[in-house]
């Protein structure tokens, strides 16, 4: 079974990791948001891409879901001693990733080529594709002005009130090699429980992606449980954009793209409302979608595939 997942952030990385570890044979491709990429100390940093890869490789910090396990912080402490910028936490192992990526980019290699090489070095079996090789940064419109995403997300701790988003240059970008084919050839598309506004929407903004998805079986997993985000500012963003945060709001966000949508058991009361998103034809499923450890990632991934197989049979 060919499965293509759209992912970003910790929630997306966890489900992608679960899918990659299923006992059954899956041909898995993960398309990852690069709208949050930015430059610091002259280094090209790709937070979502690295979070997904570290999780797939089993190298992630299990406490945070991002960054490296058994990390050391010698370089960051030296930067702090020199009064340098320390708002973005860069561990020593993580720095090695950014140093080598930047070196290769300056030599003319593409981000997708570099990512494939990193995945090979880390023993990752799934194909991991950046959404684009072109830099296409996300900006957040806030009550404090328009902010680069990492300025809003990390430096200001998601405190400014959100008014909208800008995916700079998205219409002029090209999907990375293999992205459209991975969508076109997939038996099932999985939209991971990632932030719809800033992890999935940037992928959907890449030319050709949304059109390819329209002809596929698409199964989404809600990033909100009981109206709250497991991690990150998704619920806050919905509220500030004038929408009551809920699994139903997420389903409405994706609209006609979805054929199936998985919500948490505690949101069962929303199932009928959600099914009406596509005129009553959207299939809604309830599961325990909280992933507290690797075993639960694999359990949920198995449920996603079982549901996905049922969707595919209905074609």
Q: Which consecutive residue ranges, at least 5 long each, have pLDDT under 50?
A: none
Treating each run of at least 4 consecutive H or I residues as one helix, how many helices?
Answer: 13
Largest sheet descriptor: 7 strands, parallel
Helical fraction equals: 40-55%
Quaternary state of this entry equals: single chain
The SSE order reads: EHEEEHHHHEEEHEHEHHEEEHHEHEH
What gap, in angstroms, lies between the N and C termini? 15 Å
Description:
With 315 residues, the chain is of the alpha/beta class. It has 13 helices and 14 strands. The chain has helices spanning 9-20, 47-57, 74-81, 92-106, 111-121, 149-155, 179-185, 196-204, 209-214, 234-240, 247-254, 271-275, 294-313; strands at 2-7, 27-32, 38-40, 43-45, 127-130, 138-142, 145-148, 162-167, 188-191, 218-221, 224-225, 228-229, 260-264, 283-287. The strands form four sheets. Strands 5-2-1-9-10-13-14 form a seven-stranded parallel β-sheet, with helices on both faces. A three-stranded antiparallel β-sheet has the order 7-6-8. Strand 6 and strand 7 form a beta hairpin. The longest helix is centred in the C-terminal third of the chain and has 20 residues, at 294-313. The relative contact order is 0.15. The model has no long low-confidence stretch (mean pLDDT 95).
């Amino acid at each position: 079974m060919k499965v293509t997942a759209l992912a970003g952030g910790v929630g997306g990385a966890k489900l992608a990791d679960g899918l990659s570890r299923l006992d059954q044979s899956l041909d898995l491709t993960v398309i990852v948001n690069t709208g949050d990429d930015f430059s610091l100390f002259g280094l090209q940093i790709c937070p979502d891409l690295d979070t997904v890869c570290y999780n797939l490789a089993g190298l992630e910090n299990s406490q945070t879901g991002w960054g490296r396990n058994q990390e050391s912080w010698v370089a960051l402490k030296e930067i702090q001693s020199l009064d340098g910028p320390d708002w973005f936490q860069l561990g020593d192992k993580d720095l090695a990733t950014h140093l080598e990526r930047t070196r290769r980019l300056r030599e003319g290699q593409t981000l997708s080529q570099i990512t494939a090489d990193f995945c090979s070095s880390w023993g990752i079996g799934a194909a991991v594709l950046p959404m684009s090789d072109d830099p296409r940064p996300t900006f957040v419109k806030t009550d404090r002005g328009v902010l680069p995403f990492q300025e809003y997300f990390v430096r200001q701790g998601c405190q400014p009130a959100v008014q909208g988003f800008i995916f700079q240059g998205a219409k002029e970008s090209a999907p990375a090699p293999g992205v459209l084919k991975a969508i076109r050839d997939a038996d099932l598309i999985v939209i991971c429980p990632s932030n719809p506004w800033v992890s999935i929407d940037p992928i959907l903004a890449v030319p050709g992606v949304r059109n390819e998805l329209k002809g596929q079986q698409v199964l989404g997993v809600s990033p909100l449980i009981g109206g709250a985000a497991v991690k990150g500012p998704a619920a806050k963003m919905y509220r500030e954009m004038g929408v009551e945060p809920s699994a139903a709001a997420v389903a409405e966000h994706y609209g006609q793209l979805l054929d199936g949508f998985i919500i948490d058991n505690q949101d069962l009361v929303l199932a009928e409302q959600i099914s009406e998103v596509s005129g009553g034809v959207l299939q809604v499923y309830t599961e325990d979608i909280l992933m507290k450890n690797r075993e639960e990632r694999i359990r949920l991934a198995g449920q996603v595939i079982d549901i996905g197989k049922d969707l595919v049979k209905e074609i």
